[in-house]
Design goal:
heterodimer, A: about 350 residues, mainly alpha, elongated, B: about 280 residues, alpha/beta, six-stranded mixed beta sheet, four-stranded antiparallel beta sheet
């Protein structure tokens, strides 16, 4: 293997892909979505806190609870009149003006007036989270008996799985974004890297150079691996508080990117021009992405069909690894992805030789 | 020693014989012309001789390497200029050559030398997509020269270029030949082949139908004639191959109506038409 030739092709493709607006868009989409969700969804990271301004002259238990709530920063306003301006100044999600004797009035059933300010410049996600939080806190102030005692039991819960405080939206989005990254690389970037060489006839130059076909393909594959690692790395780093088991998560990502790069090589060997790639990429991307979408209560037949898509197992492995699980199930999932990779590799090798 | 030795080389695609049992040799430092219609098998031959395509049967030695079994040793010894301007258009001229230098394991400093050789050093930083056709063609030749190959395959190097740039490219080819580089040239321009090539081969439907020096081909296959213009403007062509050519000419001269008289040697194109049955551009 002429490693210098492989490195030269990878280096050229890494730089050239950034100059190709189409490829750049494909590569940047998962990062853009991650950035978008990062700002839209509260509680996504330690930096993403809700700030609430309060004027509480009576030291109410409501404000005390808020001060103890995770992801909430409470800022005190000097007076009731200053609360609104403080909300704007602090760019807080909202503000509360709690009257004196609030706690005792609640207990006495007097329904005291609680003034709440909502900052409309904040996202609807944050506003909804703030409203839900206040609703929960106020209900907790009264010992109102619940109409029924709810017993929640996790069905099919992995016994080895670490206890965690429920799955947040960001925890569901991270596997989706990672699979999307893999999908973009596999369905679009790697096939285009190969097809463009065919279409522009630069493949003739490469084939006449000291690089063999295997080395050319290895160079393209390495470009896909490099971009997958870069984007997955950025996604994991920016969501590092969501990664429970770094070793297993990294291993799952490595297995996943080898799978998608092989799929990309197979597509690139079959297709002959950019238009064909564009036509097929959206369908392949949709199939690869489908199992990673949070469950939407789909019919059983579709749910079963998802299990024939290798990214279903990749998604499951990612979810377990991100949750910090070291369950044996993760190895089963990874084995399925690896077997799929071997099959895709043979298909790509056959197609390239052809 | 011959730079290229081809022995009964054939290539078929889906049952269609693109190259059919051709044999020839090219001496070191020679400019060898390979002429034929579109689809005659010229590019397929170049692809086989440059290790891009395996022959169906037969074989060839290029720069002392077997094109089937020694491709890895062969490729650094040859340069190929494709009939297509297959450059990386989002990259600059220098970046294109730097990439080629890395592929061929050459020192990057060689890039500027080569760019200077083809008079592109001052435009090296420009994006290739902003280059003219002539500049792209010069860059293609620079890329093929970068690693100082022994043999260069030039597939239609002057096609679509204006006469001035075409002349520059021909001068470059002659310079390379003088430096000892063997040139394997395909072209549609018969004058170009006549001017540049030591020998030419005519390819028709995958087979070599004639191979010799241009002059020898013209002598053997061409019809030399005399064109006589009479006083009334009428032009008469007399083939010197005709048995009574002398008598015809004498009669016209004796009649006293001859205004001008010119010899008309066969051109390479005439020879090609006679052998292949139609013009090269058809």
């Amino acid at each position: 293997m002429n490693l210098a030739a492989v490195a030269a092709i990878t280096r050229k493709d890494v730089v050239d892909a950034i100059r190709n607006r189409y490829l750049l868009t494909a590569l940047a989409t998962p990062l853009f979505l991650a950035l978008l969700f990062h700002f839209l969804l509260p509680g996504g990271s330690s930096r993403n806190l809700l700030t609430v301004v309060v004027h509480d002259s009576g030291s109410s238990s409501l404000v005390a609870e808020l001060r103890n709530a995770p992801h909430i920063t409470v800022v005190d306003a000097a007076s009731a009149d200053a609360t609104e301006s403080e909300v704007e100044k602090r760019k807080a999600i909202g503000g509360l003006v709690v009257p004196v004797n609030f706690d005792s009035d609640v207990k006495a059933g007097k329904q005291p007036e609680l003034t709440i300010y909502i900052n409309n410049k904040k996202s609807t996600f944050e506003q909804a989270a703030f409203r839900q939080l206040l609703d929960q806190q106020i209900k907790s102030l009264v010992n109102y008996p619940e109409p029924a005692h709810l017993v929640w039991i996790d069905v099919d819960k992995d016994p080895d799985e670490k206890a965690r405080g429920g799955v947040g939206l960001n925890q569901m989005l991270l596997p989706l974004l990672l699979i999307m990254t893999f999908g973009m690389i596999g369905a679009l970037v790697v096939p285009l890297l190969l097809v463009e060489e065919k279409e522009k006839r630069t493949l003739d130059f490469l084939l006449a150079s000291p690089a063999s076909l295997n080395e050319i393909v290895a160079g393209k594959a390495l470009t896909g691996v490099a971009y997958s690692l870069l984007i997955a790395g950025v996604l994991l780093f920016t969501n590092r508080h969501l990664v429970g088991n770094w070793v297993l998560t990294s291993l799952t990502i490595l297995v996943g990117l080898v799978f998608v790069v092989t799929i990309g090589l197979f597509m690139g060997s079959l297709l002959n021009n950019t238009m064909q790639v564009n036509t097929w990429a959206s369908s392949v991307l949709l199939v690869l992405l489908a199992p990673s979408f949070p469950s939407l209560g789909l019919p059983a037949a579709i749910d079963t069909a998802m299990r024939f898509i290798p990214t279903y197992y990749l998604t499951e492995a990612l979810k377990l690894a991100l949750a910090g699980s070291a369950s044996p199930r993760i190895w089963g999932h990874l084995a399925v992805v690896l077997i799929s990779t071997v099959l895709a590799f043979f298909a790509a090798a056959w197609s390239l030789r052809r | 020693m011959n730079a290229i030795e081809v022995e009964k080389l054939s290539r078929a695609f889906n049952g269609l014989q693109a190259v059919d049992n051709i044999s020839f040799s090219v001496a070191s430092g020679e400019i060898f012309g390979f002429l034929g219609h579109n689809g005659a098998g010229k590019t397929t031959t170049i692809r086989m001789l440059s290790g891009q395509l395996l022959p169906t049967s037969g074989g060839a030695q290029v720069a002392g390497c077997d094109v089937v079994t020694e491709q890895r040793r062969l490729k650094p010894l040859i340069g190929v200029v494709s009939e297509h301007q297959n450059l990386y258009e989002r990259m600059s001229g220098r970046e294109n050559l730097e990439f080629a230098a890395r592929l061929y394991g050459q020192n990057i400093r060689r890039v500027d030398e080569t760019l200077e050789q083809v008079a592109l050093l001052d435009r090296a930083k420009d994006n290739v997509r902003n280059y003219s056709n002539g500049m792209k063609q010069r860059l293609l030749i620079a890329r093929a020269l970068l690693h100082r190959p022994q043999i260069i395959f030039l597939d239609e190097p002057t096609r679509g270029l204006d006469p001035v740039v075409g002349r520059e490219i021909r001068r470059l080819i002659q310079d390379l030949s003088q430096q000892g580089v063997t040139i394997f040239l395909t072209t549609h321009y018969m004058e170009e082949a006549d001017q540049l090539c030591g020998r030419v081969a005519f390819l028709s439907e995958g087979r070599i139908v004639a191979l010799d020096t241009p002059n020898a081909l013209k002598v053997v296959h061409g019809q030399n004639s005399v064109r006589v213009t009479l006083d009334d403007g009428e032009s008469v062509s007399i083939s010197l191959d005709d048995q009574d050519a002398g008598m015809q000419l004498e009669r016209l001269v004796n009649d006293g109506h001859v205004r001008t008289l010119h010899s008309a040697e066969a051109t390479l194109e005439d020879v090609f038409i006679q052998i292949a049955g139609r013009k090269l551009s058809e």
